[in-house]
Amino acid sequence: MTTNTAGSATGTPFPSAPHRTAALAVLAAAPSSDRPLPESEGENMSTALPASSLGRMVRGNGPGLLLAHGAGGGIDANYGPIMDTLAAQHTVVGPDYPGTGRTKRADAPLALNALADELVATAVEEGLQTFAIAGYSLGSPLAIRAATRHPDRVTALVLTAGFAHPNPRFLLAVRLWRDLLRAGDPERLAGYLSLIGLSAPALDVMAQDDLDSAVKMTAATIPPGTPEHLDLLIEHIDVRADLAAIAVPTLVISTTLDQLVTPHHHRQLADAIPGARYAEIATGHLPFIEQPEEWATLIRDFLRENSSIGIYPAA
Q: What angle do CA 87, 252, 315 make, to 5 degrees?
């Protein structure tokens, strides 16, 4: 890991060829239940792709960029404030998970591998043969799993407010989220989400009317598929065995005032992914609300640099 806490990312731009070989050996040695690739797959081959049922937003022109949003979020909610910046230099494909945005709710529980495959399939259906993935919150482990299951397609990763596996503290917070959701009191739930989603400095300067309006808006816009997103996070997210096998340029963006996915998780990602760069933004869990311009600039500049050195091909 290479660290820069001033809002820019520095460090080794790409894992070496020997490391890529070693990374594949790590995958081969992982227990079968943890392996992101079926045993029958060759070292540079992708898992077969399903037809995608995910509704999606497509904007811009240029190298491919696939977006993976957070639990209980959506492409418009999580990436809307920075979309113009991203689409100015990329063909951006933003699929909504089941039960949010443009996608109908799932009839069955969500599965990590299946959803990762469907995200990749969405990008391919939109004409992107190779692409970077920007994952936010729950989108980070999905992006990691997509990269290890589809190494011939994924060219770079940007992981914001991410995690590999929820620890007990994180699980406590998410289980409370799920319990409040099940209780059927959306305003109480929205108040809780405001407390853990926004940073203390952001909340401390909000006027009462502004905070009341924000809580009411959150309560009115909770996606119907949120229960399935939370079940996936609580029961099935564990990509720790994938991290050493990541062989593409990776930027880990830490939301340093995050009270949901704390910087402890961000540093775990950066420490375990070979050659990963690390940058910090002084924001809570919602950088698209608190620091959208800084967040967009970090993503744009990292992807532009990788494009300029020839390892991030155009679509």
A: 35
Return the bridge partners of 42, or none.
none
Residue appearing with tokens 């039960």: 99
Q: 268, 272, 186, 173: which is closest to 223 by C-alpha?
A: 186
Distances (CA, A) of 273 to 24, 126, 150, 163, 180: 13, 29, 17, 12, 35
Start-to-end CA distance of the chain, whole Å, equals 29
Give the whole-angstrom CA distance, residue 255 versus residue 262.
Answer: 8
Q: Which of 160, 141, 137 has its CA nearest to residue 86?
A: 160
Strand order in the sheet with 64-68: 2-4, 277-281, 250-255, 154-160, 131-136, 64-68, 91-95, 56-59
pLDDT in tens, 28-85: 333 333 444 433 333 455 678 999 999 999 999 999 999 999 999 999 999 999 999 9
